[in-house]
Amino acid sequence: MEALLAQLEAQLADNSIFTLQTLSYYGEGLVTTVQLVFLSLIIGLVAAVPLAIGRGSRRRWVKMPIFLYTYVFRGTPLLVQLYLIYYGVVFVEGIQESWLWVILEKPFVPALIAFTLNTAAYTTEIFHGAIKATPRGEIEAARAYGMSRALMLRRIVLPSAFRRALPAYGNEVIFMLHASAIASVVTIMDLTGAARFVYARFYAPFEAFLFVAAIYLCLTFAILYLFRYLERRLLAHLKPASG
Amino acid sequence: MIDLHGYGPRLLEGALITIELAVLSLILAIVLGLATASAKMSRNWLLHRTGTLYTTVIRGVPDLVLMMLMFFGGQIGINMVTDWLYDRFGIDTFINVNEFVAGVITIGLIFGAYMGETFRGAFMAVESGQIEAGRAYGMSHWLVFRRIRFPQMMRHALPGLSNNWMVLLKTTALVSVIGLSDMVRVAAEASKATREPFTFMIIVAAIYLLIASVSEWGFARLQKRYNVGYGEAD
After folding, report:
1. CB contact under 8 A, B173 and A179
2. Model confidence pLDDT, tens digit, residues B10-50
3. Which domains are assigned to chain A?
4. What's the pTM?
5. What is the DSSP-derived secondary structure letter of residue B227?
6. A84 vs A238, which has greater pLDDT?
7. What is its main location (chain B) (predicted)?
8. Considering just the CA atoms, what is the radius of gyration of chain B in Å?
């Protein structure tokens, strides 16, 4: 590691912008971006499963609130949602005296809440569509076996719906990575935040933003290949037969 | 009644800027999208590669990063060009990047890539027999495009187009970060000044929902128009 750093420093010797110092900003930014995106995606995914099931319920009082939630969160910009939570959280009665304030004071948690609510809304709609596309015959077969609703959901509907949702969910993951760039607006030092800092420090927009764009591009391709691999593994039975 | 602390008119102006920005970028994106789709379907190796590079790079980088690159880098880039023109040819010009124009160009450029993919799929969905029939009638390439390929392509492109428009509309909110006084920026300023973020942000969210709902209705009507002769599938 020491030798590697020394070598890197030697290579960067005539570079006035990309010193070890600025590269470490980008490195920390990368960690923050990945944390933010990963955490919001995981929480959003867990929340989206029951929401998607409820979204397809026959009971109006279950279906309508969930529909309203996804409609509002998918119909307004994430930036507005972020502002609402980031600026709004201060005004919640008595929050500044409670223990919650310690974590809510920093912009990371409000941003995480906004991102999670946003991705959960999109993922709910993706899963809802996938559940609705379950072939009728599969459900009838499950009923004929005498399965209860819960058992049918667990064994038949959800596994195949998750597989069908995979391509659309891959797009959502990439969308979330790109959307996370707005975290820099509320002073979070994510990848874009690091690029803005480097830009402001050296007044070098091309170097600062092209470099970060290349990192995002690599991350996007990594996600793309991961999902392509998953699709190949999990959707192998749907591939057209080839000779 | 909701107290807007005198921010009402500015909020309305901001909403108009949002709409203007969105519509103008949409037009630019459609033009770029048609060009990209043609380039990607062309047999010319260079055109095909350029189109693919454009759509891949633009769709792989966050909108905000591209926007900052254009806004902050754009002026420096243009200055470099004008300096070069002066040194080389003695032409003394100075072009100032207007924020609104830069916003339209950036958003148009981003969504041109998405539109390109939408249009490419839609053009390929038009049966080649139809195009051959048009050629057999002695129609020119342009006439075939106008009378046969375009109207039928639109039927397939409309769902994707409407989707892109909804995303584009929400992307316009990002220009507030760069300094354009769209409604999100006005609302953010008002929130800080009056310490009432809920009032302003909820109004802005409601306006976005209203625009989205109106355009959804508009696209449904367009879809009906371009689906004439195909009947509703039920």
Report:
1. no
2. 888 999 999 999 999 999 999 999 999 989 888 888 999 99
3. 25-234 (1.10.3720.10)
4. 0.88
5. T
6. A84
7. membrane
8. 22
Q: How far apart are CA A236 and CA A114, in angstroms?
A: 36
| DSSP-H helix ranges across B99-149 | 99-125, 128-136, 141-144
The predicted complex's ipTM stands at: 0.86
Question: Residue A21 class from Cβ within 10 Å (0-12 exposed, 13-18 middle, 19+ buried)?
Answer: exposed
pLDDT of A11 higher than 90:
no
Question: Which residues have CB under 8 Å from A47's CB, separation 6+?
Answer: A116, A120, A124
Given a contact cutoff of 8 angstroms between Cβ atoms, the answer to whether B65 and A192 are in contact is yes
Does A83 lie at the interface with B, CB-CB under 8 angstroms?
yes
CA proximity to B165, closest of B84, B101, B223, B232: B223
pLDDT at A241: 66
Contact A192 B68 (CB under 8 A): yes
Q: Which of A113, A147, A126, A164 is nearest to A49 (CA)?
A: A126
Q: Which of A67, A83, A225 to mutate to test the interface with B (most CBs of B within 10 A)?
A: A83
Q: Counting every residue, how long is chain B?
A: 234
Eight-class DSSP state of A241: P
Tens-place pLDDT, residues A204-214 = 888 899 999 99
CATH, range B18-180: 1.10.3720.10
CB contact under 8 A, A216 and B65: yes
Q: Which of A5-14, A61-70, A201-210 has the lowest mean pLDDT?
A: A5-14
- Tokens standing for residue A234: 């999990």
Residues of A in contact with B187 (CB under 8 A): 80, 83
Cα B172 from Cα B14, distance rounded (Å): 11
Burial of B138 (0-12, 13-18, 19+ CB in 10 A): exposed
Q: Does B61 touch chain A (CB under 8 A)?
A: yes
Q: Cα(A168)–Cα(A129) distance, rounded to whole angstroms?
A: 10
